[in-house]
Amino acid sequence: MKMKKVLSIALAVVFAIGMLAGCNGGGQSELAKSYVDSDETLALTWLGYPTLAGCGEGTDTELLLEEKFNVDIKPLFYEQENFNDKKTMLMAGGDVPDFIYELDPVNVYNDVDQDFIAEVPYETIEQYAPTLYAYLNEYAPAAWSYSRYMDTNWGVPNVNHLNGISKTNAYRTDWLKAVGKEAPETLDEMHDVIYAFVHDDPDGDGKDDTYGYAMQSTHYQDFFSEFFGAYGILPFDWQEVDGEIVYGGLREECTEVLQIIADWYKEGLIHPDFVAGVTQETLVTTSQIGYIQKVSYQDESLATSQINTLRQAVPEAGYTYTLAPKGPDGLRGQRCWGLACHVASFGKTGEENVKVPRILKMFEGLFTDDALMTEVHIGKEGKHWEKTGASAGMYSYAMKDGYKESAQQRLAGLEISFAAPSFFSPVTPRKDLFMEKMSDSYRTWLDSYTAEDAVLTDAFYKVEIIPSTADYLEDLRNKQMKLMADIIQGTKDASAYIPEFTKLWNNGGGDIMLEEAKAQGDVLNAMYKDLGVK
Amino acid sequence: MKKSAVIVSDAYLPKKKTLATRLKTNLPLLLMILPGFLALLFFHYKPIYGLLIAFKNYKFKLGVFGSPWAANNGMEHFIRLFGGNEFAGVLGNTLWISLLRMVFGWPSPIILALLLNEIRCGWFKKLTQTLTYIPHFFSWVVLAGIFRMMFSSVGPVNSLLGVFGFEPIPFYSNNTAFLVLLISTAVWQALGSSAVVYIAALSGVDESLYEAAYIDGASKWKQVLHITLPSIMGTITTVTIMNLANVLNAGFDQVYNMYNYSVYDVSDILDTYSLRLLADGRYEIGAALSFFKSFVGMIFVLGSNWFIKKISKDEYGIL
Q: Is residue A380 over pLDDT 90?
């Protein structure tokens, strides 16, 4: 009897241990179990972020990573232009790299369809890069949607801190002074300033040679973005309004915004060639416009900065920075891409089961070791860079002679920004490390001229997340912009916008995209559930 | 009457050469044609099997032959292509732009060649020929930038119109004005290079024909009409037939660099549409589109060749 009791207890203990074991290793999927790290030196073909074109093999950065993580990296330095074409050609020829950088979710989808990249379960990422995994879940959980396709995860997304920060506008300080105006805060005040810039000869040369408003680029994200932002609209993106997903361009308020822009155009405040692709690029530096739609921090110590280029023509020129103008209800903002940036994926080479864990360990090492992350980005202190006064320039460090020019940095495998991923660090530095590397004056500028309420992002960061956008959106968007341009130029009435665009939308596959966009909410919820994010 | 039998002997005919002898005799010629023949074989015939991509769900790893066939008996991508929202409009734009390019682009180099042929001042002739040929060497990226600057609302062309009291023309936002700009710049860019082949043909016209016509009292116009044009008619028909093969190529480089969303309705062509499809990684639909373009081009070449041969009673034509 005693023997039987001892046996029962022993069995119970064994069972309990078995249960516990089941909770740990036994809970892992078969795929996750297949990923195992080894002690051997691994050769890694590395198709990184295409930012170091022209760089050669054997840089200090590469050697540092090789030594630290017991790997032999074969870097593939491609140019950003045609990167996807070249990447596809490489893999189509049978050379699938171990590490593959994906610039867009649609590239992930294509590479999955072509069986080029390997599935990586969240649990594997959590196992080998736990700090990074937790950080992404906390800081930018929606970024995981970039690496998700067919309810499966295909890589590790990264972030760009600057894309999550609102855009800043600027007015020429000397022009404001000349026309006796302050930097505006509202759209109405902005109208008065731009009107004076066009009609009151702000450059004082006695000629009618200044223009009002011009966009930063011909990209849809810049298309009169402050005007629509003043009404909380992203006219070419998905937005969540009252808990429902809608296409911004179908919101009723668009009519009012278009009427305002059309009135500005009629008054000569919009550059007449905005349709032809005339942007602010050269107009700013040739002192033809005094309002800059999007401006970054101007490092006055750099001869190539925009303000210094302008000062070659107008020595007294200066910028007064502002946030996007407020609309009648106090809304403001311009389109931002959002924190999600790109995806670090892994080639389906047949050796991914040992290589993926090692690359993930590299990610974790880079993410948690600030000294390593710093050295991978800007090299060794004393050799490549030195600390500067906290308020000098844009960064809290300065590159030394021989590494000051971007071409020199590129050849040395260095990348001076800590806001975004780099070729050798597909993992973006943490935000606190990024901020630490910036100068005091940059941080002050950021505090003063960016604001959370001015950040307008697509509900899914990128419209292309919705699969059917590949079939319909570009064509629809071009027609939508054409319709808007017709209204702005006065060939159509603003009241025609909603009826005409609704018709285009319905005939152009809009309803199919909307249905998918609404379902994307369920896709995201399923993803958050898999990630364990609430 | 009984017919007598005629015995014909071939003893007087030259002895028939064996294949080996003929090969040996023509070896230098064969060696000369070999590189061109190989290039044609490898770069023009071998890739034809790639058209199979249009009928398959193409997977790089499996290759063209190993990839599975597309649904609907391999016609899935064609069904999607022709059934797409954009296809009809895009095809219409392509045909319209192509037609305009042909209508204005076809006679221009002939006229230029005829005019150049009449110039007797050697240096002026060469200068004109060089100046008209130069635009051919500029890329459309550069040219589009120059035209954008020149034809913008505040550019020199509209400023000049303003001086003469005309309203500015919105070349980049008005459909008609944009098409005029597109076609005229296309004709201008290709004028000199297209005229070269006609100039070469004109140099072969027998001078004695002109002398005889002159003695007979034919005017310059009559000489052009009855000597020059008939003399180069073979070249004209050949070039015309070959150009018809490109009926669905409306000039991608030019359109892509010059168009914008405001004139998208009239300038979105098959090639820009194809680019959008390829950018999304849909190689099969891109291949289907190329197949369609080639097929239509072939129909036009064969059809026009048949037509020209028929009306010229087999005097002209390429096949």
A: yes
- What is the pLDDT at residue A10? 52
Comparing CB atoms, the residue among B59, B154, B262 nearest residue A275 is: B262
Q: Return the pLDDT at A388.
A: 85
Q: Mean pLDDT lowest for which of A89-93, A226-230, B8-12, B63-67? A: B8-12
Which residues of chain A does B85 touch, with a Cβ-Cβ cutoff of 8 Å? 472, 475, 507-509
By the 8 A CB rule, do B256 and B141 touch? no
Tell me the pLDDT tens digit for each residue of A62-108: 999 999 999 999 999 999 988 998 999 999 888 999 999 999 998 99
Kindly report whether the global pTM for this prediction surpasses the value 0.90.
Answer: no
Lowest mean pLDDT among A2-11, B15-24, B32-41, B110-119: A2-11
Q: B243 in helix, strand or coil?
A: helix
Q: Which amino acid is at A241?
A: V
Are A59 and A146 in a shared domain? yes
In a domain, A470, yes or no: yes
ipTM (interface pTM): 0.78
B7 pLDDT tier (thresholds 50, 70, 90): low
What type of residue is A534? Answer: K
Looking at this protein, which amino acid is placed at residue A487? I
Residue percentage of chain A with pLDDT more than 90: 81
How many beta-carbon pairs below 8 A join chains A and B?
77
CATH superfamily of B84-279: MetI-like (1.10.3720.10)
Q: How far apart are CA A95 and CA B237, in angstroms?
A: 49
Does a structural domain hold residue A3? Answer: no
CB contact under 8 A, B173 and A489: yes
Q: Show the DSSP H helices in A129-186 as ranges.
A: 130-139, 173-179
Please state, in angstroms and as integers, the Cα–Cα distance from residue B220 to each residue in A417, B109, B115, B117, B120, following that order: 73, 19, 11, 12, 14
Q: Name the pairing type of β-strands A156-159 and A455-456.
A: unpaired
Strand locations in A196-306 (E): 238-241, 244-247, 291-292
A17 pLDDT above the threshold of 50 = no
- Which of B175, B181, B261 to mutate: most A Cβ within 10 Å? B261
Structural domain of residue A217, as residue ranges? 170-335+458-510
> Mean pLDDT across chain A, nearest whole number?
92
The count of C-alpha atoms lying within 13 angstroms of the C-alpha of A345, restricted to the half-sphere facing its C-beta, is 34
Pick from A56-60, A180-184, B48-52, B157-161: least confident: B48-52
C-alpha–C-alpha distance, residues B209 and B226, integer Å: 10
* Distance (Å, whole) CA B84 – CA B61: 28
Of A275, A472, A479, nearest to B260 by CB-CB distance is A275
- Split into its structural domains, chain A has a count of 2
Structure-token pair, residue B139: 């890329």
Domain boundaries, chain B: 84-279
**A430: its two tokens:** 């943490």
Co-location of A176 and A320 in the same domain = yes
CA torsion sign for A264, A270, A273, A277 is negative
Q: CA B137, CA B190: separation in Å to the nearest integer?
A: 10
For residue A103, list chain B residues with Cβ-Cβ distance below 8 A. Answer: none
Whether residues A182 and A211 share a domain: the answer is yes
In a domain, A18, yes or no: no
The predicted structure's pLDDT at residue B4: 54
Q: Which residues of B touch A508 (CB under 8 A)?
A: 85
Measured between beta carbons, the chain B residues lying within 8 angstroms of A107 are: 281
> Residue A230's domain is classified under what CATH number?
3.40.190.10
A405 in the same domain as A256:
no
Q: Which of A494, A376, A470, A364 is nearest to A425 (CA)?
A: A376
Return the higher-pLDDT residue of A465 and A47: A47
Strand-pairing partners, residue A74, are A45
User: What distances in angstroms separate CA B210 from CA A374, B127, B200, B204, B235, one per listed residue?
Assistant: 83, 25, 17, 12, 19
